[in-house]
Design goal:
This protein has 126 residues and is mainly β. It is built from one helix and eight strands, in the order H-E-E-E-E-E-E-E-E. The termini are far apart.
């Protein structure tokens, strides 16, 4: 008796400067309608628009964002209402945040994300 075995695995994705440039022109919505953002996961050098962002609400009413990585991993962020942006909703790792060219760049451990940002002007007297 002869048996044929096969396995499916995702094809390796080339992560290069050319792919990073293509990411800037990539669709901004996933097939499910969620926003796609640029990310560099696991210490990757180049950003690609391949992380899907789901919006939700935590049990305490706080707004959360769930960022799904292309490898199946994810990270949850709490949306801060004090103008600081986002912070990790889970785990002990702290986020580093920078406002760069109208976007919020977040780094948590070896993962980096580029979120669109709206900068609000300070109210008079602040």
């Amino acid at each position: 008796m002869t048996m044929l075995l096969s396995a499916c695995s995702p094809e390796a994705v080339e992560k290069s400067p050319a792919k990073a440039e293509e990411a800037k022109e990539a669709p901004t919505r996933s097939a499910s309608g969620n926003e796609l953002i640029e990310c560099a996961i696991g210490g990757a050098q180049w950003f690609l628009r391949e992380c899907e962002v789901e919006k939700g609400t935590a049990d305490d009413g706080a707004r959360i964002l769930i960022v799904r990585h292309p490898d199946g991993g994810f990270r949850r962020f709490t949306v801060l209402t004090d103008g600081r942006g986002l912070e990790p909703a889970d785990g002990a790792e702290q986020a580093q945040a920078d406002l760069v060219d109208g976007r919020l760049d977040i780094r948590v451990a070896d993962d980096r994300y580029r979120f669109p940002a709206t900068v609000k002007a300070h109210a008079p007297g602040e």
